[in-house]
User: Fold these one by one.
Assistant:
Number 1:
Amino acid sequence: VQLQASGGGLVQAGGSLRLSCAASGSIFVIATMGWYRQAPGKQRELVARIAAGGSIKYADSVKGRFTVSGDNAKNTVYLQMNSLKPEDTAVYYCNAERGPPSPYLYWGQGTLVTVSS
């Protein structure tokens, strides 16, 4: 499975960005896709993920501001980020999880999101 992320950039506080992550390869093994982020000096954390069955999980810090969605026809997952805050500044990583019986995490390249105050 290969993941290609895009859509990062610089935005002012209160603005919006949309990240995209296109999956290719053996996508039939993917159980969930989503986004993590890592700010300088901090651990990588879950932002949002969506399961093949449609269930969605968000980090508390982004609930009500971010929306994760998927387009099965394009094998792409999106992260719509609204009302961005400076604390959202981080490198965002696309992630895909292979389901049982051989769970595995795939990672795309990071895309930098910078929110200026």
Note: Residues 31 and 99 are 5 Å apart (CA to CA).
Number 2:
Amino acid sequence: QVQLVESGGGLVEPGGSLRLSCTVSGGIFSALNMAWYRQGQGNQRESVASITSGGTTTYLYAVKGRFTISRDNGKNTMYLQMNSLKPEDTAVYLCAAATRIAPVRTYWGQGTQVTVSG
């Protein structure tokens, strides 16, 4: 059973930075496609950034140039470096892992709260 644990959330002032981590156990991390999602209060869950097993990245337009997704296969960990944070970035951030081969299975972490307020 694949398990994901996020960490690194917190309260930060506008313009500040945070780095989120997502550590995966129970699966072959290097074979998983990974992603960060967020869900603000009253909002639908949206994909923030993704990184394939091969290292290809995509970003939500609203975070391009401010957020960087990366992975360390040796540590079974994915990261989200968030810079120049804005109040509208406030949300619960969740990491997700998906298998590459059909039937695709998706696994979710429990989420970590990011609050941007000054």
Note: The two ends are 40 Å apart (CA to CA).
